[in-house]
Amino acid sequence: MRERTIASHFVRAALRGAERQGYDTGPLLAELNIRPELLSEPRARVTPEQFARLVQRVWEELDDEYMGFGRQCSKRGTFAMMCHSIIHCETLDKALNRGTLFYGLFPEAPLLHLERDGDQARLVLDTSDLWDPDHFLTESLLVLWHRLGSWLVGQRIRLLQATFTYAEPPHASEYDLLFPGARQFHAPRTSLLFQARYLDMPLLQDERTLKQFLKNSPADLLARPDGGDSLTSQIRRLLGRDCSHWPDLEHVARQLHTSPQTLRRHLREEGTSFQELKDHLRRDLAIYHLGRDSLAIQDIAAQLGFSEPSAFHRAFKKWTGLTPGAYRTHQAD
């Protein structure tokens, strides 16, 4: 769902490498209609399109696909050349191994390697050569390789586990979109664990589809939220976009073949609630519409199921720290 928004944390984190290189990010934020005030509000969020464009522009300005976080830069086009080098491989196993060998040719690059153990496989990332205080590049590389592999075989690779050598970060609540599945922090290695059967799958892509894929990738891969098969993502899909006709919890439970009590318990275990899920979906839909001029704020309020605009104003400020009008102004200035 393209309306699923991205926390302002990731914008701040994405810019830190450029700022470390002495790059003035102010003009770039202005170009993308992202006000600095928006980034100072922890609850604020941006659209996937804004974030994808931000990543692309940082690559262009620094000529570095590592965005200033590596010991050496990775010139623009490196990812594309790697994709061309693997696109004719017969299986995902050969493609991933060739891809990791490709990046191994570059001194001080963050290295990956693939391990296979029985019916499980693990993609391991060595982050020891990175300056990555917010773990932004670490997260990006894992997300990128997971989603690239899924695209190559034409189906989403279900993660069994994601492990990280560092402590659970403050933005860990966003990891449901990045690494759906079990997660472990303070782990011996940073890695993705999945079923080895995916490695034997043939590549379903070719040079023709790769050309289209590379028009927006890898920025689009990083910007596209992916809740996978998590319970929260399943519920969001069941709710849909029409807030005035949202099913109640009992109906959703029946759709998921469980009881309302069990559903509530599972949501508590994931650190959320049915009401919070509805609020987050309303928030994301509101941000989506506020970024476009086609609807007046009072019309957005009505479409989101609010009885009056003032209730929408209060709710939106609670969600993001800004009023709808202020948010739209920040987007338009």
Keywords:
333 residues; alpha+beta; Arc Repressor Mutant, subunit A; 3 domains; five-stranded mixed sheet; two-stranded antiparallel sheet; 17 helices; 50% helix; Homeodomain-like_sf; DNA-binding
Number of DSSP helical runs: 17
Largest sheet report: 5 strands, mixed
Strand order in the largest sheet: 3-4-7-5-6
**What is the tally of beta strands?**
7
Write down the domain tally: 3
Termini Cα gap:
26 Å
Shape: globular
The helix/strand class is alpha+beta
Rg to the nearest angstrom?
21 Å
Mean pLDDT: 87
What would your notes on this structure say?
α8 links the parallel β5 and β6. It is globular and about 60 Å long. The protein has 3 domains: 67 residues, no CATH class; 130 residues; 100 residues, Arc Repressor Mutant, subunit A (Orthogonal Bundle), CATH 1.10.10. The mean pLDDT is 87. It has a 5-stranded mixed beta sheet. A two-stranded antiparallel ribbon has the order 1-2. It is 50% helix and 9% strand. By secondary structure, it is of the alpha+beta class. The longest helix is centred in the middle third of the chain and has 18 residues. Pfam families: Arabinose_bd, HTH_18. GO terms for molecular function: DNA-binding transcription factor activity; transcription cis-regulatory region binding. Keywords: DNA-binding, Transcription, Transcription regulation. This is Putative HTH-type transcriptional regulator. One of its GO terms (cellular component) is cytosol.
